From TrEMBL:
Domain DUF559: 7-114
InterPro entries listed in its UniProt record: DUF559, Endonuclease_DUF559_bact, Restrct_endonuc-II-like
Top-rank lineage group of the source organism: Bacteria
Keywords tagged on the record: Endonuclease, Hydrolase, Nuclease
Descriptive protein name: Endonuclease domain-containing protein
One Gene Ontology MF term: endonuclease activity
Length: 124
C-alpha cells in the first residue's frame, strides 16, 4: 500500500467527477481490467499528489498532461513529483492530451507493453 493522504480524498473525488476529455477517453480503455486483467484506479491520492491513473500490480502511474504541464513551472513541478513517486518504486508514464485524443491506440499500446514487461519481470 502506497502512502495515502486522506486530506486529498474530497479533491480526488472532485477530479473524478470532472475529468478532462483526454482522461475520460483513456479511462474508457483502462477501466474494467481491459489491459491484461489489471485493475487501474483514477485520480488516486499518493503522497501529497493525486495521480491521474494508478495500477498497483505493476507500480504504474499514468498522467495525462494539459498545456499547463509544458510551462517552466509545470515541468519543474512534474520533475519533482515524478522523482518523489519514483522513490516509492513507481514508474510514471506521461502523455500529453493531444496524444491521448489523437493516438489513443498508440497510448494504450505503450501502457500494454509496459505492463506486460513488468508482469513477466515479476514472474519466478
Amino acid at each position: 500500500m502506497k502512502p495515502y493522504n486522506k486530506n486529498l480524498k474530497q479533491a480526488s473525488r472532485d477530479l473524478r467527477n470532472n475529468m478532462t476529455d483526454a482522461e475520460k477517453l483513456l479511462w474508457s480503455r483502462l477501466r474494467n481490467k481491459q489491459i491484461l486483467g489489471l485493475q487501474f484506479y483514477r485520480q488516486k491520492p499518493i503522497l501529497n499528489f493525486i495521480v491521474d491513473f494508478y495500477c498497483p500490480a505493476v507500480n504504474l502511474v499514468i498522467e495525462c498532461d494539459g498545456s499547463q504541464h509544458f510551462t517552466e513551472d509545470g515541468l519543474e513541478a512534474d520533475r519533482v513529483r515524478d522523482e518523489a513517486l519514483a522513490q516509492l518504486g513507481l514508474k510514471v508514464l506521461r502523455f500529453d492530451n493531444g496524444q491521448v485524443m489523437g493516438q489513443i491506440d498508440d497510448v494504450v499500446e505503450v501502457v500494454y507493453r509496459y505492463c506486460l514487461k513488468e508482469i513477466f519481470k515479476e514472474s519466478p
